[in-house]
Structure prediction request, 230 residues.
Amino acid sequence: MKKLGLIGGIGPESTLLYYRKLVYAAHERIGEHFFPNLTIESLNVFEVFRFCQAKEYDGLTAYLMTGINNLIAAGAEIVALTGNTPHIVFGELRAQSCVPLISIVEATRQEALRRTVNRIGLLGTRFTMEADFFKEPLRDVGIDVIAPTAPEIDYIADKIASELERGIVKDETRTRFLAIVERMRGEHGIDALVLGCTELPLLLNGTPLPLQTLDTMEIHIDALLEASLR
Prediction:
């Protein structure tokens, strides 16, 4: 199995989930006496948000590449970002990296095609919901992407930054998120929901939803394991 390198801390809670799920999924696939060798480089999610807010994409690329190069120096043969938002500069990172990077967006698009969904509702950070880096790859293969309204984006973005990135999960936040999903389903006919922030499973996993869900973290982990075992 090739050595994995993870850019973590974006945010911390999802990094913990990535580590646990990757380790035990590899254990199940390979054998009883196996756990994978991997390295995590933990960065600051609020620095990522700051770069995105200011549209300083060259600065964001340089910040992430420093982490990627640290992972490569530690022997990583495959690298992944444990957040959706930093994929806003994924093309630049891939061009600069000397080892393969596995994209959460590409993996999610492949899973959406496999499930033959037609219209997706997209939840995530403000940057994921407002920018095109996640939407365009899906639209390019004929899948409609519906984002929440501007006030809903404000609410979702605030709750991700002020609660979920800090490991805080509140019932009233979950209730409001579910109401947003139900409105999108009723008004736009979405047939699937993308959890486009790797902290969203903290809030919504285990909660009955009225439509199928594409958990980008779970999809990404499967893609990482496939790549590392090839």
The beta strands are 4-8, 38-42, 78-81, 119-123, 144-146, 192-195, 212-215. The chain has a mean pLDDT of 95. The chain has two domains: 4-104+218-229, 105-215.
